[in-house]
Amino acid sequence: MGAVRVLQRLFPEPGRLQFIYADLGDAKAVNKIFSENAFDAVMHFAAVAYVGESTMEPLRYYHNITSNTLTVLEAMAAHNVNTLIYSSTCATYGEPETMPIVETTPQNPINPYGKAKKMAEDIILDFSKSKGTNMAVMILRYFNVIGSDPEGRLGEAPRPELREHGRISGACFDAALGTIPGLKVRGTDYPTTDGTCIRDYIDVTDLVDAHVKALDKAQTGKVGIYNVGTGRGRSVKEFVEACKEATGASIKVEYLPRRPGDYAEVYSDPSKILNELNWTARYTDLRESLSMAWKWQKAHPRGYGSA
């Protein structure tokens, strides 16, 4: 809600920004929202999105991601809304045999989060091909999202109980703030250059730009599937060093066994989104992205409630 209040202050004009609190699992509520509004398009971001948590609560993930996407599609069909931008993930690929990952790389997810997202993708694709539909669909497969609003208005504030499952940037910042005694790095025996996982870190500001371009280029009767990443893999150890530089803090690092459902190396080939949507990542300096996010975290040590 904190982020919503910030946006409401930024766009106070009547009718410019409407916030409706509802459960996508409640088909009646979703249909009521569609009935009372005239939507041109849907950008579907709503999901739970933690790999570790998904292995502990798989049913919650299948319900929240897969089942709720079905509810959204049914409402779109009932109310003749034909443009969908879907928030997906590189977790649908699992652990491919070759790098970098292209959009045609086989999808073999290895955790419930990735499986739930792939199922949602499959439902969307099947629906878009069905008789009588004329959908414009864009599926964006995010890689590892970091950063915050460069102007310091919005930042990442996960629920406290999810910190253990959360993103490494959040854990780094918690350690730098002294909220936790140190940083726990899970897995040092992966077949990578330094033994830690390699990921493709995409700045959230670039991700926003990708959605704007996807909406602009969405075409009736066509489906576009795109990787949204930098095309460069960075190890967890590299990331931690960049975080130390960004925060200026001495972060104690504890190395632990692997986390269930994780994979060694994942990074994208973003050529397709460059060629077709004219999108490329601009914020590719890890330390710079983390510095912007750190500025927000320092100003909001307890999330939006401490603004």
Automatic annotation (TrEMBL):
In the record, which residues are listed under signal peptide? none
Top enzyme class of this protein? isomerase
Which GO BP terms sit in this record? Answer: galactose metabolic process
- List, alphabetically, the Gene3D superfamilies matched: NAD(P)-binding Rossmann-like Domain, UDP-galactose 4-epimerase, domain 1
Q: Which UniProt keywords apply?
A: Carbohydrate metabolism, Isomerase, NAD
Which InterPro entries does the record associate with it? Epimerase_deHydtase (IPR001509), NAD(P)-bd_dom_sf (IPR036291), UDP_G4E (IPR005886)
Note whether NAD occurs among the keywords: yes
**Cofactors per UniProt?**
NAD(+)
Q: Name the PANTHER family for this protein.
A: UDP-ARABINOSE 4-EPIMERASE 1, UDP-GLUCOSE 4-EPIMERASE
Family that this chain belongs to = Belongs to the NAD(P)-dependent epimerase/dehydratase family.
| The protein's name in its UniProt record | UDP-glucose 4-epimerase
Underlying gene: ga19033
